[in-house]
Design brief:
2 copies of one chain form a homodimer. Chain A contains 7 helices and 24 strands. By secondary structure, chain A is α/β, with parallel strands linked by helices. Chain A folds into 4 domains: about 160 residues, MoaB/Mog-like domain (Molybdenum Cofactor Biosythetic Enzyme, Chain A, 3-Layer(aba) Sandwich), CATH 3.40.980.10; about 55 residues, Molybdopterin biosynthesis moea protein, domain 2, CATH 3.90.105.10; about 80 residues, Molybdopterin biosynthesis moeA protein, domain 3, CATH 2.170.190; about 70 residues, MoeA, C-terminal, domain IV (Beta-clip). The first copy, chain A, has a 6-stranded mixed β-sheet with strand order 6-3-5-4-8-7, with no helix packed on it. A 6-stranded mixed β-sheet of chain A has the order 14-11-15-19-18-16, sandwiched between helices. A 5-stranded mixed beta barrel of chain A has the order 20-22-21-23-24. The longest helix of chain A has 19 residues. At the A-B interface, helix 2, strand 13, helix 3, strand 20 and strand 22 of A face helix 2, strand 13, helix 3, strand 20 and strand 22 of B.
């Protein structure tokens, strides 16, 4: 225990929402970069997506048919059919090469541009086409009004319309829109880089064999995936032993190179919990170190030279929750997202949860559906499955403090982990 | 129209479920590869995840406290406190270096291995620690039974337990489990490669300026993102003009290099729809070319030399739906997924949808939540927003054929696009 001082302190817990508000008040930089559209899926738009031209970009035919001057059809009827001379065929992408004269028609394909003199489209099925002396004709038996079957320029979207707002995550439909308007390179939010250190002398690396008294570091690998899911770049830093000088030096060194730094473990008040001392020596501004929540009550967040230092618990569930509740919204905000918090919905509990909740409790949960109702059950309620429960977790129940237990059938708050769109603050 | 033959045929529509069944009957290869755990997020496990050792891997302390031999505490009481000599402090990762004798205790940290002679843990708060003549002691005022506060080896998971099944998509919790058991490299399903050609002489590439009569290819870029979301590798191939020989040669050449080939457009029965002729000349086995669904009724799937050829519609919504309904499950199956189809749930319609549905209809939709109910509304019902509706689409309503319209308040089937877990067949 050389170099380890016991930190004797009485910590005062604050509420979850107070804690989250303190964290998101620290505004990190919002940087942008240009990426090719083919690398833009799941990135966040850093500028509004604007219709750079009208859609459709010209008057066009929505069907295969014949383009005519409507006035030429005005007298056509079953008894007095009207025959047109078909002077040209235009496919999509082609433009009529001639001026259409009275009594003439143009065979036109779906999506092709309407000849300038024409103002109606006759669907293929309503015309009788024939050839005579190598000239093409078609006959109709009714009149067609001006504008019939025409998709007019700009009828879907006018030039300059804001179609998708800055801060939206790019999905396949967004990609289609970006392509439509020629966004070959897209201005997106630059992903922040987040370093992850595990602390604890008991931790082995991935490739190491087990040794008596030691376990493999699993929290770091979980966090790397959580960081990726949240849209940031994880930086793997390995683990630090319970040695103060080593921890202090490494944390200081790395904090200068990343946008945020996460450590797991060592934030409690035990003999080997070094993080409080590290923050003290760094003279970091500790926003809080005790939250009225379970798990994760010792989650600590500090600011040092514009870098956020997240001290998450070494307990896997607490670490998972701590990331999603406190780190994820900061990432989302630096990505310009308007709704950076986990999506909150309600669901019917389908299993009793008899534990009393003196503090806000986050319970790893599994979501199912029954008719149009969302149902939820704890994913790791049986101790035997504790280790694999997080892999089966799609949501957290958020049970308010000061409640007894919950019965099957009760409606509870649920935070979803995998939705494209999150929630705005506040959850409460 | 050189080289273009009009394909005159009467197509017989089959039902959506018949069509999907025909496609998934074609078994593509299921290949595996090893990837480092840090690159494994969102990949699919190609082998069961097995507990390679017990969890915990040894008897350990869940708290900071003192390890004792319980029998030594049997006579302790408020009136007759029992004092132990504290012979050593062990942190997590360390092992007690001495044999613990009667009347001795060991200061032990959370997660540390229990000394072999000890069988109970006294929490820190229940002991009075003090030093005298440079020797450490602690006193307790009650008895502690054998097993008190001990996490026993294997109590969470026994060695050899299958924790996660092959075919599961790796999420952050799975990453933690893989790390726990030392899976430095993970056997995952190899992603199939899917080529995408757009067809149509009207199509401009991303970087091109608009020209009269032409529009930019947007379907391809949408499909690249859909392919990525479904877990496969998209290959961008650009667009093909409406020229038969060029189309035929390119499609044949590319089909030999990819696992699946998607084309968009050209599958209908118009003069410029070349795909039916391409399939005929390839002597590909056309599984179907007409489905009783809207949009996407002309979606065609053919098999040529073990390569699936998907002929999707050129209409953006039809193209989107065609991919999700027919291509996605094939990708999922080649990734060993047990539930490769879009997740089907029910939702309450919150907007009337008065259109009659002679055929199964897929409506791009937006999902919202009210209390514990899922609600759905069309995302592009107003024509003016047609072009951006797919970007706001999180789901498709699936309305059965032979129904009139639907009223607000009706409960309808909904296919979710963004869930981690899909549905097993059948949807119907």
């Amino acid at each position: 225990m050389d170099g380890v001082k016991r930190v004797v302190e009485k910590r005062t817990p604050i509420s979850v929402s107070e804690a989250v508000k303190k964290v998101i008040k620290i505004r990190l930089g919002q940087e942008t970069e240009l990426v090719h559209l083919h690398g833009a899926y799941r990135r966040t738009l850093a500028e509004d997506l604007i219709a750079k031209h009208s859609v459709p970009p010209f008057d066009r035919s929505p069907y295969d048919g014949f383009a005519i001057r409507s006035e030429d059809s005005s007298e056509a009827s079953r008894d007095h059919p009207k025959t047109f001379r078909v002077i040209e065929t235009i496919g999509a992408g082609s433009v009529c090469s001639q001026h259409v004269q009275p009594g003439e028609a143009v065979r036109i394909m779906t999506g092709a541009m309407l000849p300038i003199e024409c103002d109606a489209i006759v669907m293929l099925e309503l015309a009788d086409a024939f050839s005579k002396d190598e000239i093409d004709y078609m006959t109709i038996k009714r009149a067609f009004p001006s504008g019939h079957n025409i998709s007019y320029k700009g009828e879907d979207v006018g030039e300059g319309t804001v179609l998708i707002q800055k801060g939206t995550v790019i999905n396949p439909g967004t990609s289609a829109l970006l392509a439509t308007f020629g966004y070959e390179y897209v201005k997106v939010a630059k992903k922040p880089t987040i370093g992850v250190y595990a602390t604890g002398s008991e931790l082995l690396d991935l490739g190491d064999s087990l040794e008596p008294g030691k376990i493999r570091n699993s929290n770091t690998h979980m966090l790397l995936a959580q960081i990726e899911r949240a849209g940031a770049i994880p930086r793997y830093l390995g683990s630090l032993p319970d040695e103060f000088d080593r921890c202090y030096t490494k944390i200081k060194e790395t904090a200068e190179q990343v946008d945020m730094l996460i450590t797991t473990g060592g934030v409690s008040v035990g003999d080997f919990d070094l993080l409080p001392e590290v923050y003290a020596k760094l003279e970091a501004d500790v926003l809080f170190n005790k939250i009225a929540m379970r798990p994760g009550s010792v989650t600590t967040v500090a600011v040092w030279q514009d870098t956020l230092l997240f001290g998450l618990s070494g307990n896997p569930s607490a670490c998972y929750v701590g990331f999603e509740v406190f780190v994820r919204p900061v990432i989302g905000m630096s990505l310009f997202q308007e709704k950076p918090h986990l999506k909150k919905v309600k669901a019917t509990l389908i299993e009793s949860f008899p534990k009393a909740n003196p503090f806000t409790r986050f319970v790893p949960s599994h979501v199912t559906y029954s008719n149009d109702r969302i149902q939820v059950s704890p994913s790791g309620f049986n101790k035997s499955s504790a280790v694999s429960s997080l892999a089966k977790t799609e949501a957290f129940m958020m049970l308010p403090g000061g409640t007894r237990g919950y019965e099957s059938g009760d409606v509870v708050d649920v935070l979803l982990l995998e939705t494209a769109e999150g929630s705005e603050w506040p959850w409460d």
